[in-house]
Design a protein that fits this description.
The chain has 145 residues and is of the alpha+beta class. The protein has one domain (8-135): Nuclear Transport Factor 2, Chain: A, CATH 3.10.450.50. It has four helices and six strands; from the N terminus they run ααββαββββα. It has helices at 8-21, 24-28, 50-63, 129-138; strands at 31-38, 47-48, 68-77, 80-90, 96-108, 111-121. Strands 2-1-6-5-4-3 form a six-stranded mixed sheet, covered by helices on one side. It is globular and about 55 Å long.
């Protein structure tokens, strides 16, 4: 039985390999021209098309010479692939980038047609769960009058 290049798990494998190889063209080859991206926690970041993917990942590979993507786990459900990631590297100014989260990709014809990204910069020094819950439940600080 041969490997199905259109299988969402194979698309994810190619994407992961291209990320770690800093292969921008190989990375882009995994996306449909009409790719639609959403970041539900940041709705203003939504975009369509491969040009923005090219710009985003060209910057990642260019500004983080040691960028690395670790695929923690993934699951395929029909034409959808869910993946948990950590992305990390050192910026040219020597500051660290550490991101963690989940991507959900819809695959059509062996390429990613849409994505929902839940990737966030890892926050440190924000306090424990109690501090976080205070921020969640208290709402925004009242404005000064």
């Amino acid at each position: 039985m041969g490997v199905d290049a259109a299988d969402p798990s194979q698309v994810l494998e190619r994407l992961h390999r291209a990320m770690n190889d800093h292969d921008l063209e190989g990375f882009l080859a995994n996306f449909h021209d009409e790719y639609s991206s959403q970041q539900p926690a940041h709705p203003e970041r939504a975009f369509g098309g491969r040009a923005q993917v090219h710009e985003n990942w060209g910057a990642m590979f260019g500004e983080l010479p040691d960028f690395r993507a670790d695929l923690i786990r993934s699951v395929v459900d029909g034409d959808t692939v869910w993946a948990e990631w950590t992305w990390h590297g050192t910026r040219r100014d020597e500051s660290r980038l550490d991101m963690s989260g989940v991507t959900i990709f819809g695959v059509r014809e062996g390429r990613i047609a849409w994505g929902r990204l839940y990737m966030e910069i890892v926050a440190t020094a924000e306090g424990d769960i109690r501090e976080a819950m205070k921020r969640v439940t208290a709402g925004p600080a009242p404005s000064a009058k």
